[in-house]
Specification:
single chain, 2 domains, 6-stranded mixed β-sheet, globular
Length: about 260
């Protein structure tokens, strides 16, 4: 089973979303040796690779946005696709040593690309990010971000900066994005988010003080939603945001 990516698109059979075999990969110019294993266990049938942006799919196949395959691929294959994408992206962006420029070599026993000249080792990048749903009585705070293509409302989120704990990131991001102070942080769950290499860690928090003041370059709108308010369009259940919001819906709300 091969995961072939063109940017953030996955090659699948047009009618069934079946993944291509090695023969199909060879037809579009992918050498068998270029396919990276996504597990270190010997004999694993899963391989992954990035192809150049100009590569066209063979007849009967199409490149589809990875996000669009939520609900098309089952949960197991979607999780494998996310893992495969991160490994393919790591291999694509670490072909050469970042210290001396020598071509890197794959270490067969672990996910490591090592420089044969200076010994520098590069491992798959994972970028931790936090998500927080703020509660105020019977209401929750939802925001619409300026950088997303959809009009969905969701919880606040942001990347961890050097030297920060997840909790410190939550307090900083909440204050920066909406001008509020929060407390009683409670862990909710986490999800690998391969767009391109994040780990989303979700929390709930209680409102402490402040009035909403949005960071306009990040947040298009933020408001409290509670009993009697119309429910906005929210993220699907398959995402950590969708699960977090659904687990804390105000009284009288329901969502599929």
């Amino acid at each position: 089973m091969n995961f072939v990516f063109r940017r953030d698109e996955l090659l699948v059979e047009e009618t069934s979303a079946v993944l291509p075999d090695t023969a199909v990969c060879v037809r579009i110019g992918v050498a068998a040796a270029a396919l990276q294993p996504i597990w270190t266990l010997p004999g694993s049938p899963y391989r992954t690779v990035h192809v150049e942006p100009g590569v066209e799919p063979p007849q009967g196949y199409a490149f589809r946005k990875l996000r669009s395959l939520f609900g098309v691929l089952d949960d197991e294959r979607m999780a494998l696709a996310g893992r495969a994408y991160q490994i393919a992206e790591w291999a694509r962006t670490h072909r050469f040593c970042g210290v001396c420029g020598t071509p890197s070599e794959r270490v067969p026993t672990e996910f490591c690309l090592r420089c044969p000249s200076c010994g520098f080792s590069a491992y798959p990048r994972i970028s931790p990010a936090m998500m927080v749903l703020i509660r105020k009585g019977d209401s929750i705070l939802l925001a619409r971000h300026t950088t997303t293509a959809t009009s969905r409302y969701t919880a606040l989120a942001g990347f961890v900066e050097p030297g920060e704990s997840i909790e410190q990131t939550i307090h900083r991001e909440v204050h920066e994005e909406v001008g509020l102070k929060v407390g009683n942080l409670q862990y909710f769950g986490s999800q690998s988010w391969p767009f391109p290499h994040s780990l989303m860690v979700a929390f709930t928090a209680d409102y402490v003080s402040g009035d909403i003041r949005v960071q306009e370059d990040e947040i298009a709108d933020a408001r409290w939603f509670g009993p009697g308010d119309a429910m906005p369009d929210i993220a699907p259940r398959i995402s950590i945001a969708g699960s977090l919001i659904r687990a804390n819906l105000p009284m009288g709300w329901s969502a599929p």
